[in-house]
Amino acid sequence: MNYGLEFTDTEFKLLKTFIYQQTGICLAEYKKPFLVSRLRKRLTSLRLNSFEEYYNYLTKHPAGQKEMMHMISLITTGKTQFFREKEHFEYLTNKVFPYFLKKAIAKQKIPKLYIWSAGCSSGEEAYSLAMVANDYFSIYPQWEIEILATDIDMKALNKAKSGIYTSKEIASLPSSYGKRYFQKVKGQDLFKVKDILKKLIVFKYFNLSTDSFIFERKFDIIFCRNVIIYLDLEVKQRVIQGFYKTLSEDGFLFLGQAESLLAFNNAPFLLFAPSIYRKKPLET
Ligand SMILES: C[S@@+](CC[C@H](N)C(=O)[O-])C[C@H]1O[C@@H](n2cnc3c(N)ncnc32)[C@H](O)[C@@H]1O
């Protein structure tokens, strides 16, 4: 096939392997045209004549690391929205938060909730988590909520950090959330997340495929939705082991509604509710 720029099978293999090593994302043969269309502009702006030259730039040039960030941003799928798969947020409010509240009261411990949005894209998932958590816990002033939101796409992370969204992007928000947690940017069709939510979240780069799952403390809730679907079995295994290590003993793991751990014979998780997993059953 002629894509206007030759992309040989050898070049495709080189880039596919490199992308897999760097991100865990596995590109099937049919993704060749996708890769060409996403990377063509990079070759032009770097004045490179072939994908082999682009590969050499990525792996050998002093600016290769910076270019890799650019490439990751172009090839990842960042599709997301506020309150995507809204049943998960209802489940948090109806089951998960009351569970942790009851536990903290029973143990007379300093109540803290530590949440990880892994593969947060441009931040909509993390802010949705912050909204429901803040709504639920604001009547208990001692509660501390901390949300770590991570991704490998720096462009998406920068948008997440800015907390600025268009009216179209906030259209999926239930209107009461829009009014309480966003303020209009004067003279523009943009809305900014209020500080009350921003201060609950830390946005960071974290590569699920290569970074070590070492954190200061364990998470009570991990959201990793619509991310592992892009990873191959080997990387998925690694990620699942990482989540097992970093989730508290009675924590909750939320996957996307189209994802499951069914293919993993030895997954150390139990399906607790649709697309929601735990290390052990909820105590009653
Ligand atoms: C489709 S979005 C999902 C966003 C959000 N979790 C949701 O469900 O709406 C997938 C995200 O996973 C990120 N991602 C892909 N591979 C990753 C990796 N190895 N480590 C961290 N994030 C990754 C992508 O950059 C992208 O932002």
UniProtKB/TrEMBL annotation:
User: Any keyword Methyltransferase?
Assistant: yes
- Gene Ontology biological process terms, A to Z: methylation
Keyword entries, A-Z = Methyltransferase, S-adenosyl-L-methionine, Transferase
This enzyme's EC code(s): 2.1.1.80
Q: What catalytic activity is recorded?
A: L-glutamyl-[protein] + S-adenosyl-L-methionine = [protein]-L-glutamate 5-O-methyl ester + S-adenosyl-L-homocysteine
S-adenosyl-L-methionine as UniProt keyword: yes
* Transmembrane domains' residue ranges: none
Every copy of the CheR-type methyltransferase domain together lies at: 1-282
PROSITE patterns named in the record: CHER (PS50123)
Give the Pfam families listed for this entry: CheR (PF01739), CheR_N (PF03705)
Q: Which GO terms describe its molecular function?
A: protein-glutamate O-methyltransferase activity
Q: Which InterPro entries match?
A: Bact_Chemotaxis_MeTrfase, Chemotaxis_MeTrfase_CheR, CheR_C, CheR_MeTrfase, CheR_N, CheR_N_sf, SAM-dependent_MTases_sf
Tell me the PANTHER family matching this sequence: CHEMOTAXIS PROTEIN METHYLTRANSFERASE (PTHR24422)
Could you tell me what this protein is called? Answer: protein-glutamate O-methyltransferase
Q: Which organism is it from?
A: Desulfofervidus auxilii
